Amino acid sequence: xxxxxxxxxxxxxxxxxxxxxxxxxxxxxxxxxxxxxxxxxxxxxxxxxxxxxxxxxxxxxxxxxxxxxxxxxxxxxxxxxxxxxxxxxxxxxxxxxxxxxxxxxxxxxxxxxxxxxxxxxxxxxxxxxxxxxxxxxxxxxxxxxxxxxxxxxxxxxxxxxxxxxxxxxxxxxxxxxxxxxxxxxxxxxxxxxxxxxxxxxxxxxxxxxxxxxxxxxxxxxxxxxxxxxxxxxxxxxxxxxxxxxxxxxxxxxxxxxxxxxxxxxxxxxxxxxxxxxxxxxxxxxxxxxxxxxxxxxxxxxxxxxxxxxxxxxxxxxxxxxxxxxxxxxxxxxxxxxxxxxxxxxxxxxxxxxxxxxxxxxxxxxxxxxxxxxxxx
Length: 376
Ligand SMILES: *[C@@H]1O[C@H](CO)[C@@H](O)[C@H](O)[C@H]1NC(C)=O
Fold this sequence. Notes:
This protein is mainly β. It folds into two domains: 1-23 and 351-376, no CATH class; 25-349, 6 Propeller (Neuraminidase), CATH 2.120.10.80. Helices cover 8% and strands 40% of the residues.
């Protein structure tokens, strides 16, 4: 019996091919398809507050080839605001934001979500800070704009402070600036710069320290993304930013969320041999305690410029743009905007090696309802 259980457990792990072990714990996951968004969008933000994930702004029309510009451009922006409720797998419509924007950053302190930077449809950088009060579902705009605003910037939260990192200035030069916004006083102060200017990066706190990951820079004319990772200790700021182990794959515009206190880096954008945007599908997981990267499987469908947010035992990924339709650089070709939502559900179980029978039971319980285990 036990060997059958062990064989089955090993088979499941093999079929999934996506689990990794840290100390005595096996981290496994499954992907589940969820209700599609009420409208398609990419390059928006997803922010978790309380029982919901708030999706704000973004591009809501396909990115089409512009012969004049010689590149793919978003052809429509939105100010719609939707709240996704993981518990019921449903969406609520909230009042529209004061303005459309995409390629912005959002961060929550308490019940308020703050919106920073990004661009309008004419490619101007947005300076205004719009704030959604999730308790009253109402929007307001702060009287003082963001200094040195950028697009494609990243944010992390430390207490009442929001740190805004890098991004592109008006002429698409990747910045290394870090600014601290005090949400109580509504004041700005400069912080220690990144070691590497970057836009389309990502930032998050894991194991109590802040990270900036990947992204693109004008320094190589956006020919390839960065695999570079750096870390900052808000409790010891004078140490500045320091390099950590690079990601296994260089990428920009990926989605990053924290689950089980580890960074989960999902998909993103790379460049193929012709210099065209290529969507990545893999997931990498980073354990800050040991500065180690693990392989966490891959997204079920091809997309990039999507967003992710953690809630409960899962990360939810929303929308983005799919694979190129048509021939690159030809009129009518486009990266289609998506409405799909997928859930990455992570389970942690004690490794099979330690106590075979109990561990096998817990490994199996990930895949079977209790009743079917007891029937065995
Ligand atoms: C904005 O940029 C200027 C010029 O680089 C710099 O002196 C200033 O400190 C920046 N502001 C903040 C809040 O970082």
